[in-house]
């Protein structure tokens, strides 16, 4: 089935700017496909029969209503479009994005995904889009700056979660450098190089629900503790299993069961403890 006229017009319009979903593709290294679309050498994918995309569209209103109920807020600025040129490295890039909703100093992005996905993976995947929208709305919603974006996600048909992703200028600046490099290929018409620039921008310092990540792979204390955990985890499981077995061998009318190695004693409140022989 073909796209509607409106969808075709939107497809044509999308060639003249970089949007949030484009930022995701750029940071994923999908330059060739996106470059062909932006330069008119390839048509955008027809998403009319893409059930995952259509489910996201159809559940968006409910998703936002559910968010309002769970957070006890009233959302505004539904489907508001923002546009601003980005000037970096001597290149002007037209950036455009449409937020799903907002309240206070926050924007809200609604997503629908499969039941096997998780919030951490969803945040990592959509981080370029989230930071793009935060940059576009940074001083246009309240006049005092947008603090972050709530990602409101429905997993399958029975689970909902939300997480607050803080705005991060450092990540945005690094991302815009990559976007600028890509857009230079669009403007010049030169095909992207096979060897793309390193786009492995760390998301560790971007706060999610007020908490950040830390890479401890070069910290000896953490690495040693992690090594011991992996090395002895099976022994620990056996240890816990033997504790359980010993306690199950104590009858209800027994206050102590002992051997030459250890005793299992019952306290006055009924709990059992294991005491090694001295």
List keywords for this structure.
about 280 residues; alpha+beta; Lambda Exonuclease, Chain A; 2 domains; 4-stranded mixed sheet; 3-stranded antiparallel sheet; 8 helices; 9 strands; elongated; disordered N terminus
The CATH architecture of the largest domain comes to Alpha-Beta Complex
Taking strands numbered 1, 2, ... along the chain, how are they ordered across the largest sheet?
3-4-5-6
| Largest sheet, strands/sense/barrel | 4 strands, mixed
The CA-CA distance between the termini, in Å, is 80 Å
Strand runs, count: 9
Number of helices: 8
Low-confidence stretches: 1-9
CATH level 3 topology of the largest domain: Lambda Exonuclease, Chain A
Brief write-up:
By secondary structure, the chain is of the alpha+beta class. The chain has helices at 5-13, 20-27, 31-38, 51-58, 60-71, 119-136, 169-188, 220-248, and strands at residues 80-88, 91-99, 101-103, 106-113, 148-155, 159-166, 256-258, 262-266, 272-276.
List the SSEs and their pairings.
Elements: H1 5-13, H2 20-27, H3 31-38, H4 51-58, H5 60-71, E1 80-88, E2 91-99, E3 101-103, E4 106-113, H6 119-136, E5 148-155, E6 159-166, H7 169-188, H8 220-248, E7 256-258, E8 262-266, E9 272-276
Parallel strand pairs: 4-5
Antiparallel strand pairs: 1-2, 3-4, 5-6, 7-8, 8-9
Helix pairs in contact: 2-6, 6-7
């Amino acid at each position: 089935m073909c796209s509607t006229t409106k969808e075709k017009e939107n497809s044509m319009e999308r060639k003249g700017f970089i949007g949030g979903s484009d930022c995701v593709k750029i940071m994923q290294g999908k330059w060739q496909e996106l470059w062909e679309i932006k330069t008119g050498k390839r048509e955008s994918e027809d998403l009319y029969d893409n059930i995952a995309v259509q489910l996201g569209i159809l559940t968006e209103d409910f998703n936002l209503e559910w968010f309002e109920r769970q957070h006890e807020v009233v959302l505004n600025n539904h489907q508001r479009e923002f546009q601003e040129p980005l000037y970096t490295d001597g290149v002007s890039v037209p950036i455009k994005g449409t937020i799903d909703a907002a309240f206070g100093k926050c924007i809200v992005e609604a997503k629908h995904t499969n039941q096997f996905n998780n919030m951490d993976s969803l945040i990592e995947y959509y981080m370029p889009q989230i930071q793009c929208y935060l940059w576009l709305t940074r001083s246009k919603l309240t006049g005092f700056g947008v603090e972050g974006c709530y990602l409101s996600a429905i997993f399958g048909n029975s689970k909902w979660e939300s997480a607050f992703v803080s705005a991060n200028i450092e990540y945005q600046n690094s991302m815009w450098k990559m976007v600028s490099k890509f857009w230079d290929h669009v403007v010049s018409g030169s095909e992207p190089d096979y060897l793309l620039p390193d786009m492995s921008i760390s998301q560790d310092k971007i706060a999610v629900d007020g908490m950040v990540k830390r890479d401890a792979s070069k910290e000896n204390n953490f690495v040693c503790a992690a090594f011991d955990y992996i090395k002895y985890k099976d022994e620990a499981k056996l240890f816990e299993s033997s504790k359980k077995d010993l306690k199950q061998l104590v009858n209800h009318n027994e206050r102590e069961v002992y051997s030459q190695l250890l005793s299992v004693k019952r306290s006055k409140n009924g709990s059992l403890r294991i005491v090694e022989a001295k």
